[in-house]
Amino acid sequence: MKQRKLDKIYLERVLSKHVYDPYNNHKKKSSLSAQKWEKWGLSVSDLAIQIQCSKKELYNAMKDMDIFSLSVGTEGDKEKIKSGDKREDSGNIKDKETTLRYGMLSEEAKYEAFKAIVAALAECQKFANYGTEGLLESECVAQIMRQGEGEEEDVLGECVIRHCLRSCSSNDGDEVNGTDEKNEIIRIDVSKIAIFLAHNLFNSQTQPWERSMFLSEWQRLIPGVGDVYMPKLEWLRGIALEVKKGETTLNPYSTTELTKISSNDDNENDAMYLKYFPENRLSIDPPKRFQRLFAEREKWTLQDLEPYISKLADKVGITQAELLLKYAQVVTDKEDGAQWYLAR
């Protein structure tokens, strides 16, 4: 009998009803009571019942998802609430069930936390080699909290900073000094920092960026010195499309056409531009997503299409090949043999 796959789309939908928003709480000028802390989010047992799957399946699914968790203390003391840890490979599962609650972190909180992390990496000399040698998680959290006293980071709290710091790390943490979790060394994934900054750059203007100008500004913003901190175009897969000047594909966030970009240099007619087209803003409904993709481009190469369907395939529980077979058709160029995907 074929085993039913966990429905990640439904899991996300369930968790999205439980959003942790420290700014909303701050604006209301109300601290959460013990009862409210206990009620936030869902335990693994709650999720297993709603999703109708085993707890082991849930843990495996959540490892690859951006899910926020809080360790809820029985006393309800806000100061004692620590960051939930998604690494469920060790420890007693029963204990985790009684303390961890799962949900989603608000977009505003994630943005402000990542902004604070970037500032700390750029300003603190002890974090200069964050992408190679790593850094002590406790030191980085402390630095961010110090630099944000009375400001955004103070509202966010350590639990949010620690969650976002771990979400942009490239490892699960190496322990030093025995099993003291607070002294974990984490290595920050430079590409995740760079991707955050790339989104900010694209949102800073409505027109597409000239590629060389974007790369120059992007490099300037990424903290760190050396080859490992140099931006790579491959990091923009699923975030932006390369287009030539004069190309007039649809832009979902602006009606600006590339032909309207002013130029005083005829050589710039051959310049390449980067057009913001983020995968995470497309519908998770397969028919709607493919409709939008083929509205943006009449034909796609598999290389360009792949970052826009890989996560979707995982969420709906089928392969990329099955998605393409259902929603696209492939044609072969008679001259160069190149394969292109068109709408069915």
Q: Into which percent range does the helicity of residues fall?
A: 40-55%
What does the average pLDDT come to?
80
Widest sheet, order of strands:
1-4-2-3
Structural class: alpha+beta
N-to-C order of helices and strands: HEHHHHEEHEHEHHHEHEHEEHEHHHEE
- Contiguous low-pLDDT stretches (5 residues minimum) are 28-35, 74-97, 172-180, 248-266
Instruction: Categorize the overall geometry.
Output: globular
Oligomer: single chain
Number of DSSP-assigned strands: 12
Radius of gyration: 23 Å
What's the N-to-C terminus distance?
A: 33 Å
Largest sheet: 4 strands, mixed
> How many distinct helices?
16
Strand percent estimate: 5-15%
Can you characterise this structure?
The strands form four sheets. A four-stranded mixed β-sheet has the order 1-4-2-3. The protein has a three-stranded antiparallel β-sheet with strand order 7-9-8. The protein starts with 7 loop residues before the first helix and ends with a strand. The protein has 344 residues and is an alpha+beta fold. It contains 16 helices and twelve strands. A hairpin with a 6-residue loop joins strand 11 and strand 12.
List keywords for this structure.
single chain; 344 residues; alpha+beta; four-stranded mixed beta sheet; three-stranded antiparallel beta sheet; 12% strand; globular
Q: TL;DR?
A:
With 344 residues, the chain is of the alpha+beta class. The chain has 16 helices and 12 strands.
Write the layout of secondary structure elements.
Elements: H1 8-15, E1 19-20, H2 22-27, H3 34-39, H4 44-51, H5 55-62, E2 68-71, E3 82-83, H6 93-99, E4 100-105, H7 107-123, E5 135-136, H8 137-147, H9 152-156, H10 158-167, E6 185-186, H11 190-203, E7 209-210, H12 211-221, E8 240-244, E9 272-276, H13 286-296, E10 299-300, H14 302-305, H15 310-316, H16 320-327, E11 328-332, E12 339-343
